Model the fold of this input.
Amino acid sequence: MSGEERSYRASGIVLGSRALGEADRIVRLLTRECGKLDAVAKGARRPKSRIGGRLELAGRVEMMLHRGRSLDVIVAVEERSRRWAALVEPERLAVASLALERVDVLCEPAEPVPEIFDLLDATLEAVAKSARPHRFIARFSLRLLDLLGSMPPAERCCICGDMLEEVAWLDASEGGLLDAKCRRPHREEIALAPIDRENFAAVGRERGVGAAVEARPQTAAAIEALIAHYCARPLRVSAEPGYAYGPV
Ligand SMILES: [Zn+2]
Done:
């Protein structure tokens, strides 16, 4: 292997980190080029570590990494967007943590989707400046599902494929909307009127004509149910012992 192949550059967003040994950290990043990865930041827990100080939670960085035997090692970091100071406000932090956690749970390691990197980056940037950060959760979550290929169509029954009319029901365990024929009523289903389904489609649409940021209450509930289903476990629980969605 040549020296060039052993090192590479990547743009990353810090998803979280955990301690390694006495002074190191394992940092989990979503990178634009390589997808989700864990990398070692040597000496990052020492008070004056330059690398540690630049790997703030939710921040966007440009890195140089060296390929390691198991984990790659971060050898240089430049900050591109520091958001931590703006995110240390309870509502913003709650929304940012949710976004980071959803990306971590739903994105597979080493499967790059640059659009998800851009979505997370833009969402964190907006949350850091917003007085009403909760408004971004529904759109972020549905766009994430869309980019992962899991957003159900808003206009057809996901079982029989018929066009939906009047009320339809979101059944998260079926991964989509059902019409009256296919519906099996149960407590968790969420009724969506035509206006809610239009809103669902608009909230899930790429930025541009016809896209909406604000989710109606039923739409937001449907999106939450879907994402909880795909995350397949209760949210807000640490992914691994010793792993924190907290300050690096
Ligand atoms: Zn049907």
